[in-house]
């Protein structure tokens, strides 16, 4: 059988084509303290500088062995772009949103003419994508990641968002339209910079939280717009939503993404059966297994998840920053022996 480059391998797997083995990739947050120590670049400074972002991102490849590079490490740069107040991160903690910027339709209107190419953190992330693509783009997948439109709207609108979608608040429709438009344009800028895979992280667009009616109304159509826009560029999309999405997989599949990333609460067998188009990827427990477990336990669980039907065995959510490198290497080594029937 032909041996493929990591870039070719991921592309082919997500499209159901024949490959030599499983890709060794992580679609969620990759940085750890051990990687930071190895390359002498640390949070929170790394969040703010394109060169640091790229150097720390490549540590997932050079230190751990993942056959892909991915930026960024958090999902707050987009909210910051739209005027939200952040709590600064630390060495082992990501920044978080603590202040919101949109209450009314008039507030949404103020942001409609947004542009890239300035000095915002999203612009630095785009620049870091280019740095990585220039160095690794011929061989490795270049993965760009962003918060999804539903969760971005919630960041902008705060706790009012969930009540608003239930009560037909007039801010809801223009806000979700704005955040979806932003996500498409932001993803496109990352693709122009060299990204070939886009991950949509939409944690609060959860089937568990919304139920089927609201999920189908406020999540599926907007995820599909992003997936369709990326497909027109021949770019793969992965959708990650936290929590037990087992019962919502069939609806998530309607978005037309290439992969659905699921966390450790999801029943892989049921998820694989429910998804007719998207490949199921996941769902190693980032806390109890990858952080607190052993390499032998990681290998054993990888074997189980693959047998249960995951197309790509990888992390079920963002990697905990204190995760030992040896546990992540056990995952990488497993993928090199995992062949598809």
Structure description:
This protein has a single domain (6-335), classed as TIM Barrel (Alpha-Beta Barrel). Helix content is 46%, strand content 12%. The protein is built from 15 helices and 9 strands. The chain has a 7-stranded parallel sheet, sandwiched between helices. The chain has a two-stranded antiparallel sheet with strand order 2-3.
What is shown here, in short?
This is Uroporphyrinogen decarboxylase. The chain is an alpha/beta fold and 341 residues long.
Return residue spans where pLDDT drops below 50 for at least 5 consecutive residues: none
In which range does the helix fraction lie? 40-55%
Overall domain count: 1
Overall, the morphology is globular
| CATH topology-level name | TIM Barrel
Question: What is the number of strand segments?
Answer: 9
Largest sheet: 7 strands, parallel
Radius of gyration: 19 Å
Structural class: alpha/beta
Which strand-content bin applies to the residues? 5-15%
Overall average residue pLDDT: 97
Could you give the order of the helices and strands?
Answer: HHHEHEEHHEHHHEHHEHEHEHEH
- Which architecture would the CATH scheme give at its second level? Alpha-Beta Barrel
CATH classification, class level: Alpha Beta
Total DSSP helices = 15
N- and C-termini, Cα separation: 13 Å
Strand order of the largest sheet: 1-4-5-6-7-8-9
Enzyme class: lyase
Pfam family, one: URO-D
GO molecular function, one term: metal ion binding
GO biological process, one term: methanogenesis
């Amino acid at each position: 059988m032909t041996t493929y480059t990591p870039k070719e391998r991921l592309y082919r797997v997500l499209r159901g084509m024949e490959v030599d083995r499983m890709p060794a990739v992580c679609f969620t947050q990759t940085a750890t303290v051990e990687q930071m120590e190895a390359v002498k670049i640390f949070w929170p400074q790394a969040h703010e500088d394109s060169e640091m972002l790229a150097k720390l991102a490549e540590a997932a490849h050079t230190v751990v062995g993942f056959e892909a590079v991915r930026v960024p490490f958090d999902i707050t740069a987009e909210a910051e772009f739209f005027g939200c107040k952040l709590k600064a991160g630390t060495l082992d903690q990501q920044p978080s949103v603590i202040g919101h910027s949109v209450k009314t339709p008039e507030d949404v209107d103020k942001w409609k003419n947004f542009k890239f190419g300035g000095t915002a953190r999203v612009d630095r992330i785009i620049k870091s994508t280019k740095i990585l693509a220039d160095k690794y783009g011929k061989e490795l997948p270049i993965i760009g990641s962003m918060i999804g439109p539903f969760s971005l709207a919630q960041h902008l609108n705060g706790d009012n968002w969930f009540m608003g979608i239930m009560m037909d608040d007039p801010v809801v429709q223009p806000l979700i339209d704005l955040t979806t438009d932003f996500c498409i344009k932001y993803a496109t800028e990352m693709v122009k910079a060299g990204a070939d895979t886009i991950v949509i992280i939409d944690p609060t667009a959860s089937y568990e939280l919304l139920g089927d009616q609201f999920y189908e109304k406020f999540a599926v159509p907007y995820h599909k717009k992003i997936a369709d826009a990326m497909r027109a560029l021949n770019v793969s999309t992965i959708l990650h939503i936290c929590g037990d999405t087992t019962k919502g997989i069939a609806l998530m599949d309607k978005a037309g993404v290439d992969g659905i990333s699921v966390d450790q609460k999801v029943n892989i067998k049921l998820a694989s059966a429910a998804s007719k188009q998207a490949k199921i990827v996941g769902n190693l427990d980032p806390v109890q297994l990858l952080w607190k477990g052993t390499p032998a336990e990681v290998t054993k669980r990888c074997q189980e998840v693959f047998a249960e039907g995951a197309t790509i065995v990888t992390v079920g959510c963002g990697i905990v920053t204190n995760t030992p490198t040896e546990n992540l290497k056990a995952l990488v080594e497993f993928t090199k022996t995992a062949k598809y029937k």
